[in-house]
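Mods, move this if it's the wrong board.
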Amino acid sequence: MTDKIELSDAMLRSLKLPATGVIYHPDSKIAGFGIRVSKHGLKTFYFIYRFKDQRPRLTLGHYPKISLAQARKRASEATGLLYRGLDPAIHLRLNEEDTHASADVTPHVSQAPIFTFALQEYIDKHLATKCRPSTQREVSRSLRSNFLEPWAAIPIDQITAFQVSEIIDAKIADDKPSAAIHAHADIKAFFAWCVARKMIKASPADTIPTPASKGKRKRSLNAHEIQAVWLATEKEVNPIGKLIQLALVTGQRRGEIAGMRWDELHIKHGYWEIPGSRTKNGLDHIVPLSFLAIAIIDSVTKTPMPMQPGDTEIRYSPFVFPAQRLPAKPISDFSDTKERLDRLAAIAPWCIHDLRRTMATGLGEIGILPKPKKKLFNHAENEVHDTYDRFEYFKERCEAMHLWALYVKKAIAGQIETASIGAFDNPFARIEEQPSPGASP
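Not the wrong board. Structure tokens:
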């Protein structure tokens, strides 16, 4: 093989024949591209590349049957395919006539990227710019967990409606109608974006009907089930166990807890402040923290960030529950931990959102009045207020959190007979609903 040099027509015409075998002349302009010359005078353009730990050699055509400009164009197309995660040997289709006789045949190049590449483009260019951070995480998690493994290396123009329905139907068969509905909506939006970007001509998800819902879930856990789930989380080394405990104790949404930041916590004053950018209704939300919630948070160890050049001290993740591999981001994958907890708890099927419903049910039985309860769960108000008061009913909400923590603690200890929810005396249940001034604690 000779040294790299920028190939030119004048050079190609004057190439000397080797005495034996072949000699390779790599081009300095395009990596992997070059021309080989045999002792019989056959001049063949080639493209060498690395793909999945292999180094295939692709024949692009023979000179002068195809010109140097045509060969360079094909090498550039092959390079573009590699950037998309595609094997040029498969997706850069050259007719046999093209490589041996005709210089006029243009190769057919598949323009559709593989699913892995297209999905990352969708996340980076659409979700990251059009959606709230919590929505980005949920949709990204849904698409990756449901579709990435089976479709990773498939060009998106080759994914069929049958393949889409196969995954959706599997969710329905597993008695997960809500997961099926979300997966259907997420993949449909993804393919619609691909159509708009001219990656594909039509969406394979358009003909798939929206899965039927089983109606609103009503599942809430009783005291024995609370005990079983809690004891299971205490055996879990993954911090998701602590996250699930907080979901039960605070009644807040899974995504809000997963995205909890250390700078949102005001432990000294006993509350957690969730910014509107992370809440469902877009409003800032003040969550009173009971003694049990504070104990859980105090038991979580801060996660150090990977050291970067120039770092003089350890930096910690801003998140209470960071992703294990990327501590700069919040945790998003709950499936493996949830499956382990299900096996340990051995109770009827439940989801993390059921813990929020469990707390809501318990507070209703205690006698917490509707308005403080709504504020506690950050439910949208029907009436419009001139000024939104984040600390409205704060005293009542603190008391409600305290009572609920007492109940959970008794349930964990197995003191069911003496700790029914109705056994607690709640003085705030007898106070007439009057808006409080809402001063900061």
